[in-house]
Design brief:
The protein contains four helices and seven strands, in the order E-H-H-E-E-E-H-E-H-E-E. By secondary structure, the protein is of the alpha+beta class.
Amino acid sequence: MKIQVDNLESAEVERLLQEHHDDMLKHSPPESVHALDLSSLKAPDVTFWTAWINGELAGCGALKKLNEKHAEIKSMRTSQQFLRKGVAAKLLTHMLNTAKTQSFAKISLETGTKNAFIPAQKLYKSFGFQECQPFSNYKEDPYSLFLTKAIG
């Protein structure tokens, strides 16, 4: 698997992100969907990675800088044909290692609470993420689960 910083210019990446957003809307009301759009993912405070296997897009994920010591995981998604093959775990490992080298002390994220989000919840918890209160600009929401992990 090749993991690389991506410029979000390819049609494959756009399709995967659209699939991600559409899927979020199937399980949460629009006001509870916090996926970043393409322009937000291109912001200077966001690093976006893609994972490729034999030339096929296997997944993506981003790290958004909240402040000098705190970052947020955004837009984690595995392509349908690569589900349950370790793509998300490898991407998450890569992002956490990068966050450490950039001197972040804490990584947080928001994910959904419905059954469709259980695989994501299990993945994050297996990496040591623990439930926390809403962070940054988030508010309490029955459709949102907030997780954080100290990495410093």
